[in-house]
Inverse folding.
């Protein structure tokens, strides 16, 4: 079985570990590194996966999944590069580096790690925790077809996967990487609206969450026809159109367009901030 180490077990790192375990992978085939010892103890207690240092993780794993914040990438790569160099010098098998980091191009990893290190960039999302991730995969310069297949297989066990050119990854990050947050935000606001119109919070939450689950299930079946589904809810002179008029008046559609464009731009900026060839543009 492929041995996988997650470097940086925060929210998305934990979601990946949890998702892979739920999908039937053995804890013995997984490792993680974590900067905060207390966090490492909690994760081992919860999942039975062992924590390791970077050197051990790199020596024992076939796939290294980088899941630190883009702002924390420098020290991690500085630690990883010599370890991978030693592994290569000792004739060890090739390691595959999979980055989940928003904005960071595969070229950044290739420049900082030993020559010809295979790198795959992935943008997943947190529904990985429940086996419903949307992940988009792009190969770096040295990633082979077999390595891309392997990454697709790993992520396919925790949700859906698509392949895309790396040039689309900043847009993908804005759409599906951050996407769950937009839905959570909407649900939060709709529950508040329930309070406003006199429904107790717990009941408002139940009504809205079940409506979200039902709507998502219908959307999946409709394969990209949200307009038809919305029209079916919108009766002439009814309640829904009264609400839609307010949404349009308040520019919700335009706000979403701007929001997703801003997220795309921020992803580009995170990549630039970590590009050593660009001076004076660090954005932390
Ligand atoms: N949270 C999300 O929904 C998504 C996050 N991502 C990407 O995943 C990456 C991680 O994001 P989160 O999990 O949200 O952040 P986080 O802050 O929850 O997790 C990062 C973890 O890495 C650890 N860490 C930092 N430097 C380390 C080092 N040198 N060695 C070992 N551990 C180290 C931190 O202690 C922390 O637990 C980011 O690059 C983000 O862009 C991608 C898709 C979705
Ligand atoms: O907010 C972020 O930067 C990360 C990347 C995609 C989702 N969360």
């Amino acid at each position: 079985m492929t041995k996988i180490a997650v470097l940086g077990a925060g929210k998305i790192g934990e979601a990946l570990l949890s998702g892979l375990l739920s999908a039937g992978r053995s804890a013995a085939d997984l490792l993680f590194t974590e900067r905060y010892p207390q966090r490492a103890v909690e994760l081992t207690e919860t999942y039975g996966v062992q924590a390791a240092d970077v050197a051990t993780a790199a020596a024992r794993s076939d796939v290294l999944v980088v899941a630190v914040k883009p702002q924390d990438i420098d020290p991690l790569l500085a630690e990883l590069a010599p370890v991978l160099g030693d592994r290569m010098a000792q004739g060890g098998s090739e390691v595959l580096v999979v980055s989940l980091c928003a904005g960071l191009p595969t070229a950044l990893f290739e420049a900082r790690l030993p020559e010809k290190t295979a790198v795959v960039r992935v943008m997943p999302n947190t529904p990985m925790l429940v086996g419903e991730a949307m992940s988009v995969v792009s190969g770096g310069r040295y990633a082979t077809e077999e390595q891309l297949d392997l990454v697709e297989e790993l992520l396919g066990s925790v949700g859906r996967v698509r392949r895309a050119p790396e040039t689309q990854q900043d847009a993908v990050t804005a759409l599906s990487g951050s996407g769950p947050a937009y839905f959570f935000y909407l649900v939060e606001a709709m529950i508040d609206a329930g309070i406003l119109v006199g429904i107790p919070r717990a009941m408002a939450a139940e009504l809205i969450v079940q409506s979200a689950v039902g709507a998502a299930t219908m959307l999946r079946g409709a394969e990209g026809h949200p307009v038809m589904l919305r029209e079916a809810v919108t009766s002439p002179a009814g309640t829904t159109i009264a609400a839609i008029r307010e949404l349009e008046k308040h520019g919700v559609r335009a706000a979403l367009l701007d929001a997703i464009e801003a997220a795309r731009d921020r992803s580009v900026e995170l990549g630039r901030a970590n590009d050593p060839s660009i001076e004076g543009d660090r954005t932390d």
About this structure: DSSP finds twelve helices and eight strands in the chain. Residues 4-164 form a domain with the Rossmann fold fold (CATH 3.40.50.720). The mean pLDDT is 94.
